[in-house]
Structure formats: structure tokens, C-alpha cells
Design a protein that fits this description.
Length: about 375
């Protein structure tokens, strides 16, 4: 627990203290956010606000991860039951976080450099995301644990609140599924990042929930295979997952200080793609993939409504919503930005609470029927 708390504290302090430097630096570099002309008119006042703030909380999370491992190294091995070095779990989660952040940074850089709201083409962005997700998916599915030969970061079975062993889709199917979830969630967070603090606040809730889930799994994790019943969660490196999730949540919390309305800086695609990729990776690492649509319900709703709008327009040349992403529909309906953000945060919070309830309910169900 000590390593998780220290990592979170470091990530928060680094982000909240370094962000003013980033704001001044990006402002001097004229890295202002281009605004779409066809968007809500109220957004024109945001033109020139520095973007690419995701760089800071990504770096803060990586620094906090390293510090967390230094703390782990000071604790007796008997208290840990977890590796203190870099693991495949860390490679996959931080690889998604940093790698997709790099894709987003390239997209933001093109926007800023060419002074337009379009950076990478849609096909190029999807290609980069797919290649990165596939590469890390191979690591997640094929790199075994040194102490548990069959335990990998992800699995060929579909999971809900734990693995569903009869629902096996093979390693190849699991790799395709891994790529699909990473692409879906990274782009869903990116679509949500349209109002001051909206995606940041929702991400804090989701990442905080994954911190609780991962630490709970760590506390009920079979360290030496002495017990292999349903009470033991079949996950790899749960303490590592908790450290990364806590660090990212705290870093986003620090970023929210500067990103809340009126935003002094935007996370850009740099932060949005990174957060979505990390959330997807956490779902696989904690074996809660089918719980993800509920846990990240706000991102799910915004992505689904975007698909509905695009599909309806292409098939029947009709719009279901005034504008997508969904938050802009409510802006055009007359809602204020702050009202939309707070109400959407409430929806995000309800999804997180419901998902955590289902996760804990499964634990209680197992305990109720466990032989004494």
C-alpha cells in the first residue's frame, strides 16, 4: 500500500507543480489549440489555449512509477509477494500510455504547426494505434511470468469481473480483441475531450476505480499457488497495476487543477489517446474487460452516439443529434459548458459506482458459497 500511496503523491505533485511551466513553455512556442469553425461558437474564445498538456501527466506517471518501485525495493520481500523490477505488466500498461501519447503528440504537433484542426489523417492515426496495440498485445498474451509459467498479462478467455474460462477465443482472437478494445477506448476518450475538464475528471474516476480493483485483487491474490480456489484472483502483478493506475489517476487530478473551466491548458490528443489506451490495458490486466463499458460508461456513451450519428448520416443522410460528440449536442441545445461537464461527471460516477458494486458483489457471492 505504501508504494501505491507514494506513487500517487509523486504523480500529483509533479503534475500540479510542473503544469505552470508547461503552460508558459507551450504558450511561447505558440502551441495553441486550433478550433473547428463548424463547432459551437462559444469555443472560439478558447482559440490559442496551449495544448499537449498530456505530456506532463504522462511524464509524471512514469516518474511516479519509478519512485514507487524504489519504495518497493525498501520493503521486505516477504511483505511484497510481488516483483520490484520492471514486469511485462508494466511494459504493456506504460507502453500503451506512452506509445499512444506519442501518436497523439504527433497529431497535435501537426495541428499546431499547420494551424488547422486536422492533424494526422484518420487512416494514419488508426494505423499507428493498431501497430502499437498489436505489438503490446503480443507481449500481453505471449510473455509468461517467470514464477508462473502460464500466467500472462492478458488471456485468451473473455473476462467480466474475472476470467470466464468457458469463453475461450484463442490467442489469435484475443489479440484482435485486444487491439479492438484499445482502439475503441483511446478514441472514445479522445471524443470525450471536448469541454474543459470533462475527459480529465471522468478519467480520474475510472483510473481510481482500477486502483481499487487492482489493490483488492492484490490483497486476495495467491502468491505461491498454495490455494487456487475462486477466492484467488487469476491476475498477474496486481500491485504493479495498482501503482500505475494510482499514479495516472493522481496525475490527472493534478492536471484538472489547470484544466477545469476556464482551462489554462488542454491535454490534446497527446493525453486523450494515452488515457484511453491505459484504461483499456487496465481492463485486460485486471481481467475485467466486459466490465469496462459500464466502468467507463461516459466514454462508452459518447463513442456509441458518435457511431450512431455517423452511421445514420451515411445510410440515410439524417442526423440523430444536432452535433457529435454528444457534449456538443447539449451545447447547441443551450446547456452551459459547466452544466454539461458536471452532469456528465455524475453519469461517469454512477457507472463507476455500479461497476465497483458488481465487482464486489461477485466477491461476496464467491465467499458465501466457499466451503469453511
Amino acid at each position: 500500500m505504501r508504494a501505491v500511496i507514494v506513487a500517487a503523491a509523486v504523480a500529483f505533485l509533479v503534475t500540479i507543480l510542473a503544469m505552470p511551466l508547461a503552460i508558459r513553455g507551450f504558450t511561447r512556442l505558440k502551441a495553441g489549440q486550433p478550433i473547428r469553425a463548424e463547432g459551437p461558437k462559444t469555443h472560439q474564445s478558447k482559440k490559442g489555449t496551449p495544448t499537449m498538456g498530456g505530456v506532463v501527466f504522462i511524464l509524471a506517471t512514469v516518474i511516479a512509477y519509478v519512485v514507487g518501485h524504489f519504495v518497493l525495493a525498501t520493503l521486505p520481500a516477504a511483505q511484497l509477494g510481488a516483483p520490484t523490477g520492471v514486469t511485462a505488466t508494466g511494459v504493456v500498461l506504460l507502453g500503451l500510455f506512452v506509445g499512444l501519447g506519442a501518436v497523439g503528440f504527433l497529431d497535435d504537433f501537426i495541428k499546431v504547426r499547420k494551424k488547422r484542426s486536422l492533424g494526422l489523417t484518420g487512416r494514419a492515426k488508426i494505423l499507428y494505434q493498431t501497430v502499437l496495440a498489436a505489438g503490446l498485445g503480443v507481449v500481453a498474451l505471449y510473455v509468461p511470468n517467470k514464477t508462473k509459467e502460464l500466467e500472462t498479462v492478458a488471456d485468451s478467455t473473455i473476462s467480466f469481473v474475472r476470467d470466464i474460462h468457458w469463453l475461450d477465443i484463442s490467442k489469435y482472437g484475443a489479440l484482435v480483441f485486444f487491439v479492438f478494445v484499445v482502439l475503441s477506448m483511446s478514441n472514445a476518450v479522445n471524443l470525450t475531450d471536448g469541454l474543459d475538464g470533462l475527459a480529465t475528471g471522468a478519467s480520474v474516476m475510472v483510473l481510481g476505480a482500477y486502483t481499487l480493483i487492482a489493490f483488492w485483487e492484490y490483497r486476495h491474490w495467491d502468491l505461491d499457488d498454495a490455494y487456487s480456489g475462486p477466492y484467488s484472483y487469476e491476475v498477474r502483478d496486481p500491485l504493479e497495476i495498482a501503482i500505475i493506475a494510482a499514479a495516472a489517476a493522481a496525475a490527472c487530478f493534478g492536471f484538472l487543477w489547470w484544466n477545469t473551466s476556464p482551462a489554462r491548458i488542454f491535454m490534446g490528443d497527446t493525453g486523450a489517446l494515452a488515457l484511453g489506451g491505459l484504461i483499456a490495458g487496465l481492463a485486460f490486466a485486471t481481467r475485467t474487460v466486459l466490465l469496462l463499458p459500464l466502468l467507463a460508461v461516459l466514454f462508452t456513451i459518447i463513442a456509441v452516439t458518435w457511431v450512431i450519428q455517423i452511421g445514420s448520416f451515411k445510410l440515410w443522410h439524417r442526423r440523430v443529434f444536432r452535433m457529435v460528440p454528444l457534449q456538443h449536442h447539449f451545447e447547441l441545445a443551450g446547456w452551459s459548458e459547466v452544466n454539461i461537464v458536471v452532469r456528465f461527471w455524475i453519469i461517469a460516477g454512477l457507472g463507476v459506482a455500479s461497476a465497483l458494486g458488481l465487482f464486489y458483489a461477485d466477491f461476496l457471492r464467491v465467499m458465501e458459497f466457499r466451503p469453511h
